[in-house]
Amino acid sequence: MRHPARLGTALTLALATAGCSTAAGAGSGADGKPAAGAVSVTSCGRQLTVAGPPRRTVALDQTSTEILLELGLQDRMAGTANLKTKIPAQYEAAYARIPVIAPKIATGEQLRSATPDFVVAGSADLYTKDRAGTREELDALEVPTFVSAVDCPHQNPPGTTAFDLLFSDYENLGTLFGARERAGKLVADQRAAVAKAGENAAGVPQGAQRPSIVYLYSVFNGMPYVAGKNGLPSEMSRIVGARNAFDDVNEDWPEVTWEEVAKRDPDFIVIGDLSERGRPGDSAAEKRSEMARHPVISKLAAVRDGRILEVPGMELDPSVRSVHALGLLANGMKDLGHVR
C-alpha cells in the first residue's frame, strides 16, 4: 500500500458507501455492553463482538479461506487473497465464487475495495500498516479482525497443543457465523483423526527411545529449510511417538546446513512437497535429487534404506488440512517399521 496513513479515511468512506453494518461496534449497545443477540469471542487477546453473522468477510490467506470453506461459509465471503498452492478439489467450486482481491498479500487499498464487515487471517503479521492495515485501525472503523489462535500461543493456557488451537479457531468462527453445529462436527472429526494417528505411539514401551524425524520443507540455493521447535511438525512427531530432530532450534522453519542434518542422523525424513508453489527446490523430486547427490546425506541410513515420506508441504503448517498430513505420517512410519 503506497499511502498507509490514508487507510482510515479511505476505508471509512468505502464501508459507509457499501452500507456495511454488522461489524464489531454494531454488536454493542449505548452502554458499551453487547446488544441482545450479539455474540462475542476472544481472538489473539482481543474481544470480538458481532450483532449477527458477518456477511462480507475477507480472508487474508489461504489457510483462513479453506477453514471458512470447510465451514460452508462461502456465501458470507467478499474476498480472498494470498493463494500459495492449488485449492483442493473439495473446495474448488465454492472457491470459484469468491472474488480474489489480491493474488499475493493484500494491501489496505485492496481490502478496502471489498468493503468487508469482518476480516480473518492466519497470522497477525498480515495486519500491518503496509499490508491490510493494523488491527487497531480496523477496530476504529468497527471492522472486527480475527487472528488464528495458532499465531498467539502465549494467549492460551500452558500445555495447549497446536491442534487444540486450530480446533478453537473452528469453534470461535462457528460461534461468530452461526455455524456451531458444522464447526462442532469438524472438531469432532479432526480430534478422532488425531487420536487415530496416535494409536501407534500408545504401543511404544515406557522409556523407549523415540525415532527422530527431519522435516525437509524446502531447498533454496542448495540449503535445506527444516522444521524447528515452534512449528506444527514437533506436535505431529509427539503424537506419532517420535521426535523432531531439530526440536532444539527455536524457530518455525530455520535454514540449516546439510552437514547439520547428517549430524542429527534422523531415522526418518519427511519431505514437504511444495511443487505447486513452483520455486526452485520446492518439489519433492528436487529434494530427493538434492539428497541423492549430496556426498554425505546420500550415505545416511534413512536415505539408503528409503525411510523417506512425502506429504503436501502446506499441510505441515497449521491448517484445516493438517490432520491429513498427520495421517500420512502415522501410516507411513507404521509401514516403514517405526523403529530405528
Features:
340 residues, alpha/beta, Rossmann fold, 5-stranded parallel β-sheet, 34% helix
The CATH homologous superfamily name of the largest domain equals Nitrogenase molybdenum iron protein domain
Total domain modules: 2
Give the C-alpha Rg: 22 Å
Structural class: alpha/beta
Q: What percent of the residues sit in helical stretches (DSSP H or I)? A: 25-40%
What characterizes the major β-sheet?
A: 5 strands, parallel
Portion of residues in beta strands equals: 15-25%
Number of helices: 13
How many angstroms separate the termini?
52 Å
Overall outline:
globular
DSSP summary, beta strand count: 12
Order of helices and strands: HEEEHEHEHEHEHHHEEHEHEHHEH
Query: What's the level 1 CATH class of the largest domain?
Result: Alpha Beta
What strand order characterises the main sheet?
5-4-3-6-7
- CATH fold-level topology of the largest domain: Rossmann fold
Mean pLDDT: 88
- The low-confidence parts are 1-10, 12-26
**Assigned CATH architecture of the largest domain:** 3-Layer(aba) Sandwich
